[in-house]
Structure to design on (509 residues):
């Protein structure tokens, strides 16, 4: 019991002594502190040392046109014709995927050739035709060939103005027919289709 | 050299549809284009095995007297090199009496006073982009002195094709093989703005063609401001009881005048008649163009009862 009192008295004395020391310390440096306050212009100068910074990102709208597969007719005999069915010939149909802002309208036009040129500068031409049922489109995304999709047939000779699907994709499929004359020169023939895409609303 | 592409829009429902009266595509007979295609900056897509493709962003480039430089980002997302080119043409979307959309791209002899062709430059203009590569294309405008206030237009046409032609299979003797290559082009809008800008559109007429299964609404708009009116066309088909049958939303750009057609498919069964079409056009709500690039303009509302 006495040990505790002594301890307590010692602590009180220590506290008093520390208090006294603190007073002396404060009195010695008070003018300095006051000077600093005056220089700083008051309590507002002692702003908390923290700040907020905004993180920003600028997401740019985009438009992508990707050629996934060439339209290929394979081998044709002179005097014969070959057709690619847009709804069934998965390995031969031309496939273009347009990607952009989901649900926004995009306009796509195909500049289709009327003939293919003989490779190697031979000069002969192979007639190619695109009927009103040789185009198809699908905006559901996912599968990459028309037979897997619920596609809509359209005339590839006209402009397609459609909204992107929810995933921001619009797939276009192209078939057609080539006709070889009886005197058609044997060999490889190549042509070019141009796919032009733009946002009609701009 | 002028290359005109007249592309009729297919009508899904019209009492006067007749394929034979439509103009077909005029194939621009020119040498193979080299070019770039659009690039996508915002999304880093993995390299794909597509044959040719270029991503482009943004889809509208806006320059001004205060900011005469701009940029576009191209990216090759494929795993093969792409030959990409950037060129300028002038072309505005215009429509015919049936709402068929037409785009005429011209690269010379343009007489439109709002054409910016000839005083905007791009650097670089031809690039071979390795797989996965990204390229910034910068634009600089040097407009004529004393250019009147308003907006001036051009189209940035980015074309792309495979850098190496595809390997063709050996052709068997006596047979013909046929293949189509693809050149991809994207035409994005470039606008140069000067001075006080005023976006204003007037709806000058609304008409509707009703069949058993469809309603086609034709909306005529005329630009009364000094900038292209970039807006959103909202249309609602409503029955006599006030129930909404269908609502549609389309981005629209009115440069001079424009006829837009909106098609509605009628549901099966009886509908309370007469139906009504509510139309509104406003500059608010564009999701594809940054808000800072849309000049705020007037809004127009119209209602048409389908007797």
């Amino acid at each position: 019991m006495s040990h505790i009192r002594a301890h307590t008295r010692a602590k009180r004395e220590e506290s008093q002594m520390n208090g006294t020391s603190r007073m002396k310390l404060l009195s010695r440096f008070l003018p300095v502190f006051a000077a600093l306050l005056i220089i700083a212009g008051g309590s507002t100068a002692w702003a908390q040392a923290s700040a907020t910074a905004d993180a920003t990102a600028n997401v740019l709208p985009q438009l992508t046109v990707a050629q996934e597969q060439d339209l290929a007719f394979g081998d044709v005999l002179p005097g014969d014709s070959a057709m690619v069915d847009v709804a069934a010939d998965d390995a031969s149909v031309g496939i273009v995927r347009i990607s952009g802002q989901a649900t926004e309208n995009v306009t796509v036009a195909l500049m289709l050739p009327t003939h293919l040129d003989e490779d190697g500068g031979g000069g002969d031409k192979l007639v190619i035709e695109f009927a009103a049922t040789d185009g198809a489109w699908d905006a559901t995304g996912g599968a990459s060939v028309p037979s897997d999709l619920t596609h809509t047939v359209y005339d590839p000779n006209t402009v397609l103005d459609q909204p992107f699907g929810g995933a921001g994709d619009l797939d276009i499929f192209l078939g057609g027919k080539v006709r070889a004359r009886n005197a058609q020169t044997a060999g490889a023939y190549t042509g070019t289709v141009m796919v032009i895409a733009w946002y009609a609303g701009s | 050299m002028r290359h005109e592409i007249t592309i009729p829009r297919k009508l899904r429902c019209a009492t006067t549809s007749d394929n034979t009266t439509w103009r077909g595509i005029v194939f621009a007979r020119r040498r193979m284009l080299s070019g770039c295609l659009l690039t996508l900056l915002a999304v880093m897509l993995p390299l794909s095995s597509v044959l040719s493709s270029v991503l482009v962003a943004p889809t509208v480039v806006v320059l001004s007297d205060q900011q005469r430089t701009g940029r576009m980002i191209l990216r090759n997302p494929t795993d093969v090199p792409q030959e990409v080119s950037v060129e300028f043409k002038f072309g505005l979307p215009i429509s015919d009496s049936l709402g068929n959309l037409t785009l005429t791209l011209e690269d010379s002899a343009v007489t439109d006073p709002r054409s910016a062709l000839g005083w905007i430059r791009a650097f670089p203009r031809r690039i071979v982009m390795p797989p996965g590569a990204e390229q910034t294309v910068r634009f600089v405008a040097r407009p004529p002195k004393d250019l009147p206030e308003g907006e001036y237009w051009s189209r940035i046409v980015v074309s792309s094709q495979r850098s190496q032609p595809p390997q063709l299979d050996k052709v068997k003797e006596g047979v013909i093989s046929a293949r189509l290559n693809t050149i991809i082009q994207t035409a994005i809008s470039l606008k140069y703005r000067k001075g006080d800008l005023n976006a204003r559109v007037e709806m000058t007429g609304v008409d509707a063609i009703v069949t058993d299964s469809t309603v086609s609404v034709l909306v005529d708009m005329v630009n009364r401001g000094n900038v292209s009116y970039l807006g959103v066309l909202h249309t609602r088909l409503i029955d006599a009881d006030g129930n909404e049958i269908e609502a549609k939303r389309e981005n629209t750009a009115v440069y001079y005048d424009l006829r837009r057609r909106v098609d509605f498919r009628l549901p099966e069964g009886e509908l309370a008649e007469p139906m009504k079409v509510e139309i509104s056009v406003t500059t608010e709500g564009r999701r594809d163009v940054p808000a800072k690039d849309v000049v705020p303009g007037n809004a127009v509302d119209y209602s048409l009862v389908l007797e």
Q: What stands out?
A: DSSP finds no helices and 18 strands in chain B. Chain B has a mean pLDDT of 82. The CA atoms of residues 81 and 130 of chain B lie 4 Å apart.
